Amino acid sequence: MSEALRACQVPETVPERKYRCLMTIDTLPSESSERLRADMVATLTEQGYIRSPEVAVAFAKVARERFAPEAALTAAYSPRDVVVTKRNATGRATSSVSAAWLQADMLEAAHLFRGAKVLEVGSGGYNAALIAEIVGDEGLTVTVDIDPWVTERAARFLAATGYPQVRVVLGDAEHIAEEHAPEGGYDAIIVTVGAWDCPWGHLLAEGGRLVIPLRFSTITRSFTFVRDGDRLRGLDPTVCGFVAIQGAGAYLDQEASLADGAVRLTIESGPPLDVSALDQALAGERAELWTGVTAAHAESFDSMHLRIATVDDRFGMIWADPERGKDLVTLAMRWYCPVLITPDSFAYLTIREVQRTNEAEERRWEFGIHSHGPHRAELAQQLCDHLQNWDRDWRNHSGPDFTLHSADATVPEPADGRIFRKRHTQLVMTWV
């Protein structure tokens, strides 16, 4: 399912619910945890994130609020919202309970079964409880986290909710996961932190599945990797966002914090950014260019990011503080808004509503480019060209194929694609 205009600055309507759950919803108090849990399960089922009875039963049984006591009940049971449980000194989230829709989608992708042996990288307790509920007492659930605050809390919550059999491990999953691997490997590995690399593929059992949110060129997609000879084939890349992995697996993008943090630019590699010059660029003259490329509310443009990142290594992301940044930049997407970045200039996507000739006509929004810095005109035109090329040649395409290879494998350059080389692996994106 596309995250397209859900992330854009476009008004959304909430469709009338037309479902009933496994539970008898009408007999439950409207604000009780049981009623909210039933509503959540019904919504996730209706929207296609829960697709099997095993996952439905697990979500219906495990009390989500017990793993997020700091959140209001309605927030804990929101199908789409993340519950942040810990932040660092700068205010960035370092631990959270992931959005229920994404947890359900990843559990379904893992193809869990009774008796399965499962590794979870990144803990918190709730997702491990869901896994344990599905695999049963005859299965194995190992959850690993580098933060002792997280593991202590997860172990306490799991014991209190009836899942003491979950093995909670404190340590850096980059190294310690192998120590706890069962003979023959794990039937599923589910990574619940944003990873830049994937050192766990060799721990998969024959026929096992690895579900991981993998970052490349500042983009994150949740992949389901399955063994295909001497490589892993990536299935169903899903737009998502996760708290970044810590420890040996961490990778810091280049970041420029502008206007005292009101606007941030990130790029994975390339020449060092001149933060002072970019700050001056943001405060200076802006170029504007409209592309003629439009989108409706429910239209997907997930592949746009991937295509631009394929052809331009200046691709990055821009974020704005919801309050302090709104007068400085007008972003097409609240999250994961594409930008081309050079050491002293940048150009990003914006949108405006297309004027309609009558009320019955479909509402559409046009993508444009705003750019700053001495090279603003050139960058704006180049980003415009990328967008128009994607719209003409790739918009209706199924998207690229992904494969994951070991770092020492000989991998030919794709005719149309890009290889993202990492410490342990090489992620190959190929357009066919």
Write the layout of secondary structure elements.
Layout: H1 33-46, H2 53-61, H3 73-76, E1 83-87, E2 93-97, H4 100-110, E3 117-121, H5 126-135, E4 140-145, H6 148-160, E5 167-170, H7 173-176, E6 186-191, E7 204-216, E8 219-228, E9 231-239, E10 254-258, E11 263-267, H8 275-283, E12 286-296, H9 302-311, E13 315-320, E14 337-341, E15 346-353, E16 364-372, H10 376-394, E17 401-406, E18 417-421, E19 425-430
Helix pairs in contact: 2-5, 9-10
Textual characterization of the structure:
- This protein starts with 32 loop residues before the first helix and ends with a strand.
- Helix content is 24%, strand content 30%.
- The protein is built from 10 helices and 19 strands.
- The radius of gyration is 22 Å and the shape is globular.
- Helix 2 (53-61) packs across helix 5 (126-135) and helix 9 packs across helix 10 (376-394).
- The protein folds into 2 domains: 4-8 and 19-249, 3-Layer(aba) Sandwich (Rossmann fold); 254-394.
- 46% of the residues are buried.
- It has helices at 33-46, 53-61, 73-76, 100-110, 126-135, 148-160, 173-176, 275-283, 302-311, 376-394, and strands at 83-87, 93-97, 117-121, 140-145, 167-170, 186-191, 204-216, 219-228, 231-239, 254-258, 263-267, 286-296, 315-320, 337-341, 346-353, 364-372, 401-406, 417-421, 425-430.
- The strands form 3 sheets. It has a 10-stranded mixed beta sheet. A 7-stranded antiparallel beta sheet has the order 10-11-13-14-15-16-12, sandwiched between helices.
- One of its GO terms (biological process) is methylation.
- GO terms for molecular function: methyltransferase activity.
- It comes from Nonomuraea roseola.
